[in-house]
Amino acid sequence: MPRAVRIRGDELEKTEREAKRRNLTEKEKEEEEESTALHPTSPRSPGEVAIRTSHPKILFAVFEPDDRTQLEAKQDRVVESVAEEESSSEPLSPPIYEPYLPEELADDPDILHDFKDAKARYYKERNRRIRLFTMDHHYYKAPSCLFNPHLLLPILEPARDAALRTAKSVILLSSFVGDDPLNKCSGLWFQRDDQSKTALVLTSAQLIREKNPKKPSEWRQQWTGKYLRDAEVFVHFLDNTAAPGRLLYLQEHYEFALYEFEVDKPVQLLTFTERVCCGQDVLRLGRDESLDLRISHGMVAHKIPSRHERCHYMYFSRDPSSRLLLQDDGGAIIDLEGKVVGLVNNHIVETFVPSFILHRCLDFWRRFNCMPRLHLGMAFTSIKHLDPICIERMTHDHNIESGLIVEQVSKGSNAEKIGIREGDVIESFNGKYVSTTIELEQMLIDICWDHFHQGKCLYEEKDVSVKIFDAIKHRRRTRNLTVIVSDLGEDIVKCTYPFMGKEAMSVSYDS
To answer: What is the pTM for the complete model shown?
Structure first.
């Protein structure tokens, strides 16, 4: 009787392809190989799914588009067996029984002495048993939000599955300057090359950001920081070994970095999704110094950035029952399917870079070896995320329903020179209306993509048409804004001037 064999969906698809190929003629096979060589599966424009390059040994993390109608096939999980099987001839471990002393023997001193010895041996063995790796949940106080299941009952099972599905891709990194430790961050395995036995890690730029020992919180009041690109960086594997890496790319504006490491065995890659919704249940994953997984529950939120926060940030609104986790900068924000929706940027203010920005930046890096962005010289707040009372007032009084409020204008910038001031509203760029800062970031990257496809380079100027509502004079105007295509961090310079006395004042204010 033939034995039934279970075939996974991907294996079945592969078997069908091989069967079809066997029926092709030699000429048809040659044409198929030639077509495959001419059209490798590499990204063509921002937003396309990028899985692998034309090199068959290099694998990338998967980016899934925001297609809510797309059905996904569930794949069976394959678990590697690492424990050796026991031979039937080996003796079994004895069960442990707690001794007790019958009442009729309680007065016998010799038996009482032996009973105390037996009791001590019992407690020694019991303590040894409860410290088995399978029993440590009885005494280990886990900092995971999933340790108190009654708080997250509606999502408990998918949350556990999602965390475990992603865990193998989350690692710990440490950086050093000489013999002095600099920072620790989490990171994500992002790409692997099985032929060269190397893998890439995506992590936060905080890993190599210089700290001021006299003012450790000063970096929170700065737009850009100093990054120590020559710092030594190590990845810490779960078997307590470590390996040095080298910096491939640092994106200062979006504040993430790519490192390459040598690995002895394949690493697990992630699946990213571009579907990120406000109010969505998510988990934040990182690792501590003991390499234990750290998990906290929260929701995706849009907030008005503080004065020194980037406009592209999205926020992790932490569940009050979850602890503030340390060293998870560079860790993953995942949905309840285990797909990455963002990279933790700053665990203190709990911000993250959304996955669709990461996708477009990495598309650029593969195609053009850089991750550019237009420097506008301004910082914004989205009208859409204001209180409805404020929105209604602006709509009623000034016919403004959406757009970006200019919060800051960099001193000496082209935006300042064409008359854009704090409080003005930018309604459109190049004729396209924009309602959120996230939409703006996507638009800026798309403009850069067209810029590079025209054969132009970094650090060149580009003109952008902006429609402005002047909040002081209550009128609209359209101006050409000259911006810079750059992959550096944009620094919004505060507008100041030295006060040398009333007669020497260099700034006059309109009434």
So the answer is: 0.75
